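At this stage, I wrote out one protein, both as residues and as discrete backbone shape codes, and that material follows here.
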Amino acid sequence: MAIVKMKQLKLLAMLEDREEMLRTLQGLGCVEISEPSPSSRSENEEEQAPAQELLSQLSSPDTRALSQAQARHHDAQHAMDVLRHYGAKGRSFLSPKPCASREELYGQEAVERQDQAVANVLAADRQISTLLARQEKLASQRTVLAPWMDLDVPLNTASTPGMMVQFGTLATAHPFENAVQAVQSVSELACLTQASASRELRYCLLVCHTDVQDAVLEALRAFGWARVDLSGWSGTAKENDATLCAQQAQAQAELEQARSQLAAMSSEMDELCRAADRATLDIHLQEGRARLRDTRQTFFLQGWVPAERWEEVKAGLARYPCAWEVSDPPESDYPQVPVQLKNNWFTRPLNMVTEMYSLPAYGTVDPNPLMAPFFIAFYGVMMADMGYGLLMMLAAVFVLKKAKPKAGMHNFFMLLGLCGVSTFVMGAVTGGFFGDFLTQLTTLVNPDAPLVLPSLFTPLNDTMMILIGAMCLGVVQIITGMAVSAVRKVASGKFWDAFWEEITWWVVFAGIGLAALGITNLVLYVGGALVVAGPLITGKGLGKITGVFASLYNHVTGYFGDILSYSRLMALMLAGSVIAQVFNTLGAIPGNVIVFLIISAAGNALNFALNLLGCYVHDLRLQCLEYFGKFYEDGGRPFRPLDLSAKYYDISK
């Protein structure tokens, strides 16, 4: 239960073995490839300069393969989205990920099937897109023809040397009769015919003798005349519309057929999933490859490997002609060392909590073993209901058995189950089962013999005792954090820092406790003397005097505020209990069991959902702000090895 010790690996091998060696490392899944950099063991920049210059002379592998893998992954994901759009169903949340061997992903026949499935789906999708675009174009063309449907004149009617024929529009702001009169007043050798009208425009045909066309057009300009170009059409508007309508029907039939064919491809979803996972693994491989450095015949790899798995990596590399160096990172390199946590079944679920905050820095303390008991216990104190705890345990067991999730989701449901156990235990202590559900229900059934669950104390009747108990739990956690901090300081040779910062205040806390019990005040006097002596001994000049007041103010207010913040344990226990009882009481008012069950179920479901999130947030705050601040150093970078992790399949090695 600690931070895994890492070793830095430097490897030089033949270029011809690069791809096979990378796949070997990917199968092992325990080597993180990093960007090469000169060792920082020496702080002398002049000694590092030659190594930096040598690295700069090495070439980086081309990234075309990475781009191709990313393109294949995009195509596979897009094909899957297309099939889902047309009714294909993916695996449900509760379905465990199936296993697949590397042969099922990378075998020649498997690759051909996967690529063909992706190509078929994308081709069908492109065909559908083409047909949709064609339909839009046909609909747009019919929209253009619609105003001219009542005009029994071919749209390709052209002007002659003696006659001008022009299609155009007029603004509806002016009556059509006025426009006709304006044309007739210019010449009787002109005719203006209206085909149709909309709210803003009139669609008209103008025929006139060429000798008077300029005058006629000038007269129509006052009515907003604008020419419409219909030169691309042949025949009347009705004839063209009938042709377009037939083309639309044909395109719709082809579209329905293409959609049916695409819906029938839902059986290809598994092949698409394998294609996406194969592309994902190739992306991981090529990203690692891009961090290598090449010469004409060799390549250089630099990375990190857990010390406990080095022998396994060494055995894998023994098949290749290569040279390597493995070393422990110097303390100056700790910020660059990746962090991997190693915990047991009880503390591992807390990884998700730690990762939400920040991983611990390499070379420091793994907080999960120190946090797990407090986090789980505090959650149970705040939730404190047997019914809610039972639901949490059942949900966790069901999902873990049914879906068999991995990594983060596994940790989440394990933590949910552990917190459910704590919630159930505290619910048994306080006598809560969905609030006072059983009491209200049995009262409705038989008012003379209500069922009251036994309890050691209840949130409503023993509020002050719960508040004091919550603060006592806070004191225990704060002292635990101080103890971890003191041990670390002593281990690093800073005994007096630990003495004045932690041990002195333990004496004060012990003195307060003994004085409150009426045993003795002597220990409190000793503690007070140490608090005053600390700044006087470690300070300089006026700092000796001001340090006394600063130490008293900062520590007293700091510890008081930290301990007081644990009152939220009591507050959430009380709030959850009261809300549940309120809904149970509301449900019992009508005196009908069915109505009671409905209202109580709805209210408790809402209360349960709010408490799930609220208790988690407040529990997380107590750990991160009140506890971690005593000893925790964050900023760790997660260990991301080159491995066979994929989204849709568990890849067997």
In short: Residues 510 and 516 are 10 Å apart (CA to CA). The chain is about 60% helix and 10% strand.
